[in-house]
Structures are given as structure tokens and as C-alpha cells.
Task: structure prediction
Amino acid sequence: MPTLTQYQGCLLGTALGDALGAPFEGGLLERFVWMLIGKTRDGRMRFTDDTQMTLDLVQSILSKRAVDSDDIARRFANSYRWTRGYGPAAARTLKQIKRGVPWQTASKLIYQEGSFGNGAAMRVAILGLIFHNRPEEITRAATSTAIITHAHPLGVEGAVLVAHTASLLASDTETNSIYETLLPLAQSDEFISRLKTAKAWRSSSNSTKPKEVRQHLGNGIAAHQSVVTAIYVALRFRGQSFLNMFDFIRQLKSDVDTIAAMSGALWGIANGVERLPKEIENVEQHELIRELACRLFETTVHFSP
Result:
């Protein structure tokens, strides 16, 4: 079973990757805005919607003792603040939910098939620990949380793959075996082709440059352009330092914070909270995040979605 240090590593790894990556995310305008709002009043690094929605999910599960999509949707909507850097589509969806529009309707008001962004994948690694070694429940839980904001099959698929990777890392599964397990879970050519590329790189060497990763796996906000990237980076650096991993992600450019949040969660599961660098103490609310991880560890062993 997953350990407390893996629970803490998952949530704090998410927050650290997110907070470190936020100043490098997007273009010049986004970076300028984050220069103005990226620190708390006491000088700590602020995290973005990536961590906020992860915490919303955790707090809902602690409250409901289940994966309750209605409750999660309400929490997502109530926590929305533009200063967390939510994407335009997510912001509009959450505003509609807060106004009383059912999430089932709101999630498809902007895109007919729903969003295929990576916003669902960035928050679900913890589900791989809660439902560890229960693959059908992992898929069900990841899907239930994804469709609230990212109902497109690609958005859901990205979330499912991250959650399963988390579960496999909790068992210290060998890297090639992780890819072999993920490939049958992938449904689309977009994910299958990228997973095959990542697996081939792992089998040959770890010398792939950030430019090659950008070109072949992606670095964008779409799930299929970032999820496999995050998985590949986390697996490549699973035995190395967190900051070395982040430096590689920073060089990928574009959606740095979300890729770092996903990779950070997976790295945290693989290595445990003890190996996170001291920079975690400069992330806002890190004490609360650690406490939530402890509560979740103590109470979710027998949860079912």
C-alpha cells in the first residue's frame, strides 16, 4: 500500500512544481502578470489553479468519503479566483457552475465535446494512491473528476493515464513496465504514439534534449501535448533531484507550471516527501498541504468512488 511519505510527496510535489513553474508559464504578458502577483504578502511562492484544484479535490474526498462529482464541482467553482491563473475556458465554466448551471451542462457550453486541456490531468495523481492496485476504480475516479471541467475524451484520457502512473509508481514499478501498462490504457492515436516514443527513448538512452521532447511529445496546454511529456520527465528523473527535473521542464517552455505540477506529483510519489528540496518550505500553505496529505492517508484506505 502507498505510504504517508508518498501521499505527502504527491501533494507537495504538485505544489512545488506548480509554484516553481508559474513564473515561466506562457508568454511575456503572463509572465509579467505573475511577476506582480506571484508572491504572498509574507514573500512565499504562490501556486496556481493546478494546486488549488488538487486541494479542492482532496478536501471534497475527505468531506464526502467518496468521489462526489457534484461536491467537487461546487468546490472548484467556489475556489475560483482569476489570480490563480485559470485558463479562459476553465474560468468561464467555473463561473457558470457558481451561477447555478449544472456542471454537466457548463462543461460543454464552450466546447461541444468538452475541453481537451490538461486541467483534469494536473489534479488526479492522488487518486492513484487512494485507489492503489484497483485499476478499474482508478479509471472510474479519474474520469468522474475529469468530466466536470474537461469532458472531451482526450482530456479524460490524460487524467486516466496520470492516475494510473501514480499508482504504478507507488508500487515502485520499473519504468519500462509502466509504459507497457499504460499503452493498453491509451485510447487515442495522440496518446499511443507519444507513449511509444517515450518508451523508445527510455529503452535507448536518457540523452533526449528538451527541444526533442517539445517537438515529439509536446509542451502545450492540450492534454495530449503535455501529459505524456510530464510522465516521461517524471520517469526519466525519478532517481535524480527534483530541481534537476524542474530545470529540464523549464527548458521545455510554454505550459511549464502544469507540466511541472504533474511531474512533481509523480516524482513525489516515487521519491517521498523527504527528498523534496528545501524550496518546498517557501511555497504558500505547505503546512496545510502536508496536513491534508496526512488526513487523506489516514482515512482513504477503503474508499470507493
Q: What stands out?
A: The chain has a mean pLDDT of 94.
